[in-house]
Amino acid sequence: MALTVQSIYNSLGIYRLKLIAGKEGLSKHVSWVYYTEDPETIEFIRGGELAITTCLNIERHKHNTGNKSKDYITDFLDRLINAFVERNASGLIVNTGKYIEEIPPEICSLCDRLQFPLFTMPWEIHTIDVMQEVGNKISLETQKCHTLEQCIYDAIFHKKSFDITGIKNSPFAEEGEFSVILMEYPEYDFNQDEDELRRYIEFSFNPRARLNPSNFCWFLCDKKVVYVVKNEGSDAAFNINNAARKDRYLSKSRVAFSDVCKSIYELDEEYSHAEIALKLCSGPLCDYNSIGFFKILAEVKNRSVLENMYEQTLGKLNVFNDQKRENYISTLKLYIEANGKVQKTAEENYTHRNTVNYRIHKLSEILGIDLQDGEARYLIQTAIYIKDYLDMTKSAESAKIPR
């Protein structure tokens, strides 16, 4: 929930800023304010900075390039803005009136194309005043974000220490619905620097995901980006997944989202639901409500109950070696899906019906169950679901990882 270029622009009316280009980028988050006069120093920024310049060095640029036409202004600003965009800066304020009178139309077109907000500010406005004002706002907002982030984290992972006062004066203090979205990211090219990844998510990725800044909170946990959003999470999850597919670092990420809860106190349950969906997800985006029967199994908190039921139903098949057991269980699955029809099972299994008959007879004998009976087949189907669920969630024992 960092400040955006839009919110800062709205709060700086007394400084007479004028947006002249790049309005599509106003949702970008701002990490800090950065003063520069030289494109060579832009390499030091880390992303998200709102830059300010007076174009003091524009005459030196004219001398160095030998460009005697008015194009030297365009050349200088083109180089400056492209360098900012490459480093994920959030926007630029140009203090006009002394070193530069007006912004060339080619530069406005460039900023519109790059969705890079460009502002002008009259020369009589001191850059130091704007920098101090923006810096104070960012510091205050950063402190509020850290408090909210820790509070939401505690609501999920440390429920006993959760303090509701931590979300006062935030959108999460209001009653309503909440959802959890998880983005499990792959190995990333950030030299394993979590702070660098955090900045990239905050100031580069999240703005491109077009999330409403006032409706979500996020943090990193266990190689996942955890988003808590107000209201139902499908739209936000879709935007996150869509942005990830186009991202140079996160294109192989997987995204899952939970059902909704009516209270902050229920966020731990929805985190577990999103985590289950992530583990059961076969594609890049998974909805907890789409996992069908597994939703019922996910509500059984004691795994030993499920393990015991599977053992009581299909555990006797352990008399076979692994390969033979898998063959029999595969035939059993197809037989159940075919509603007990041997010929259809044989066709689906690419085998002779006599082989299917033999296996079904053998299975009935070992399990002590009449597989012609519909209720017995339902019990077997449930046990198969349990086995699949246990296998897929074996490493997903809701890790409560303190920070």
What's the topology here?
Layout: H1 5-11, E1 18-21, E2 32-35, E3 49-53, H2 58-65, H3 71-86, E4 91-96, H4 105-114, E5 118-122, H5 127-157, E6 178-184, H6 194-208, E7 216-221, E8 224-230, H7 234-245, E9 254-257, H8 267-280, E10 285-287, H9 294-298, H10 303-314, H11 322-337, H12 342-349, H13 353-367, H14 374-392
Parallel strand pairs: 2-3, 3-4, 4-5, 9-10
Antiparallel strand pairs: 1-5, 6-8, 6-9, 7-8
How does this model look, in words?
- Mean pLDDT is 86; it is low at 396-403.
- α5 packs across α8 (267-280) and α11 (322-337) packs across α13 (353-367).
- The chain has three domains: 5-134, HprK N-terminal domain-like (Udp-n-acetylmuramoylalanyl-d-glutamate--2,6- Diaminopimelate Ligase, Chain: A, domain 1), CATH 3.40.1390; 174-291, Alpha-Beta Plaits (2-Layer Sandwich), CATH 3.30.70; 303-392, Orthogonal Bundle (Arc Repressor Mutant, subunit A).
- The protein has 14 helices and ten strands.
- It is of the alpha/beta class and 403 residues long.
- The strands form two sheets. It has a five-stranded mixed beta sheet with strand order 1-5-4-3-2, with helices on both faces.
- It has helices at 5-11, 58-65, 71-86, 105-114, 127-157, 194-208, 234-245, 267-280, 294-298, 303-314, 322-337, 342-349, 353-367, 374-392, and strands at 18-21, 32-35, 49-53, 91-96, 118-122, 178-184, 216-221, 224-230, 254-257, 285-287.
- The two termini are 20 Å apart.
- A hairpin with a 2-residue loop joins β7 (216-221) and β8 (224-230).
